[in-house]
Amino acid sequence: xxxxxxxxxxxxxxxxxxxxxxxxxxxxxxxxxxxxxxxxxxxxxxxxxxxxxxxxxxxxxxxxxxxxxxxxxxxxxxxxxxxxxxxxxxxxxxxxxxxxxxxxxxxxxxxxxxxxxxxxxxxxxxxxxxxxxxxxxxxxxxxxxxxxxxxxxxxxxxxxxxxxxxxxxxxxxxxxxxxxxxxxxxxxxxxxxxxxxxxxxxxxxxxxxxxxxxxxxxxxxxxxxxxxxxxxxxxxxxxxxxxxxxxxxxxxxxxxxxxxxxxxxxxxxxxxxxxxxxxxxxxx
Amino acid sequence: xxxxxxxxxxxxxxxxxxxxxxxxxxxxxxxxxxxxxxxxxxxxxxxxxxxxxxxxxxxxxxxxxxxxxxxxxxxxxxxxxxxxxxxxxxxxxxxxxxxxxxxxxxxxxxxxxxxxxxxxxxxxxxxxxxxxxxxxxxxxxxxxxxxxxxxxxxxxxxxxxxxxxxxxxxxxxxxxxxxxxxxxxxxxxxxxxxxxxxxxxxxxxxxxxxxxxxxxxxxxxxxxxxxxxxxxxxxxxxxxxxxxxxxxxxxxxxxxxxxxxxxxxxxxxxxxxxxxxxxxxxxxxxxxxxxxxxxxxxxxxxxxxxxxxxxxxxxxxxxxxxxxxxxxxxxxxxxxxxxxxxxxxxxxxxxxxxxxxxxxxxxxxxxxxxxxxx
Lengths: 284, 374
Known about the structure:
The structure holds two protein chains of two kinds.
Chain A: H1 6-33, H2 38-42, H3 54-63, H4 76-107, H5 113-122, H6 132-141, H7 148-156, H8 159-171, H9 174-182, H10 187-198, H11 200-215, H12 219-224, H13 233-241, H14 250-281
Chain B: E1 4-12, E2 18-27, E3 32-36, H1 43-51, E4 58-63, E5 66-67, E6 78-81, H2 93-103, H3 108-121, H4 137-149, E7 155-159, H5 167-184, E8 187-192, H6 195-201, E9 204-209, E10 212-217, H7 219-224, H8 229-234, E11 241-247, E12 253-256, E13 259-262, E14 274-279, E15 284-287, E16 293-302, E17 306-313, E18 320-326, E19 336-341, E20 347-350
Parallel strand pairs in B: 3-8, 3-9, 6-7, 7-8
Antiparallel strand pairs in B: 1-2, 1-4, 4-5, 9-10, 11-12, 11-14, 12-13, 14-20, 15-19, 16-17, 16-19, 17-18
Helix pairs in contact in B: 2-3, 2-4
């Protein structure tokens, strides 16, 4: 719809601004809160402009965490590192595993190929929460509790990503595979030289989704880590709040929240450029 | 440089569909063979079997005297040009052409020289750094050709390579492919459903129908003495006209659409059997007086150099009957015209088997066919 009516333009901008405001305001408040002292926050008008405690609060949270024994005193920097390792492990692992699974299902004729596909597809219906107890048992028996491998491995298999890759591979013209065969490229070389570069946009999109998914994992890390040095930031935030006998140190909690939010935002921003670039450049 | 031999080649798909029932074909070194036929006749399947993209159910395919049935496509010493070009979209033109050589571990400097050489040959030297999507259809076609040529294969396989191009470019590329093939002297198999391409490019044509080769021969042979009714009807545009007929009781005359025609001296056929008599549109002439048939004009197609008159012939039922005449002829639809058939150019087929009968009609003495009425 191409129209040029000033009133409509103003109204649509107003609606958009309103939407942005509703979404951004809580984050703004969080940010502002993280730059004040605890006492400032408790006094009557809640400040709406950043204070002067930014550096102090953030450096304290990052390096020391809360000086509070019940919170374990784990520095947020460690939590961020753990979360980053877990999220990257899950995202990259998922992409590798599902890329290869989809490659096998689409390009090879083997017995029970469709059975394999439907088995993978069926697991779409089973979220982590449903299979969490047997998974826990398996991981515990393998001695993987309190380890990065234990954090990532059970979540790596992904029906969604396999399915997406399969759908994409089906749209790649058969002639491309045939031309590669005639050009003397074996299956692995075809995968590496042709399929992988063509899937770049899909991989970028999946990485964004899967990284966020991995970063936001809560239940699984909660169950399987008891050692504070494997604490992830999603769980860490909760521990920052639940202190006994005193008020939570809100500025520090808010600083932790802001820090927890940053990596997914960065990933989305960085990958989005890749994503758009890929969309413009490739052509099936 | 090598020939190609096919012996009793057969293809049955796993679902039981028989795509190729039986093909024998010997292709000489450097020959340009065109497989032509309607869609679904198995011509592409046959090409893909030669390429190694489809398994061969029975029979043997040999390239340069070497049986290739069980070899991978890459080991068969062939190169293929696909209908949609199948260029690797993310690679530059240079890499597209070089990819096959790289996979063969050709040394880098040699790849460089060969790619440049082929690019020069195809006049795409200035496009080497571009991606396929930045190219026009004709340029993509050239790159696809380059990818095939650079490998210096024994056999080129073309799968309808021109059908995605516009009409003008098609004519141009047609000439170019043929010239290139002649210069390189590489044996080629070319699949098309376009009979103009088939007629103009082929050293020999293989006219296919329902998984069988109906006729193998030079374009001239196929046009002038089609082996079956199918070939006669398929090759030629406008298509050949067919008249129902039979052999007169005397055995040396045939009767078609009410016209009695004498066979050449000494030629006889078993009386009574049903015939189909084919006549090419250019072998029908409009005459002033009573000719062989009367034609009710339905449609006039002005093609510039010539005019095609389409109508219904007396005694030939409702089948359209076409004839070609010079470009300045014009008739109002519905008009009745007299036409004469060039008797000695009629094609006579057995109606039952569809096979050509090796007889001709004797020409009639020129009588009343001089003036063309306007």
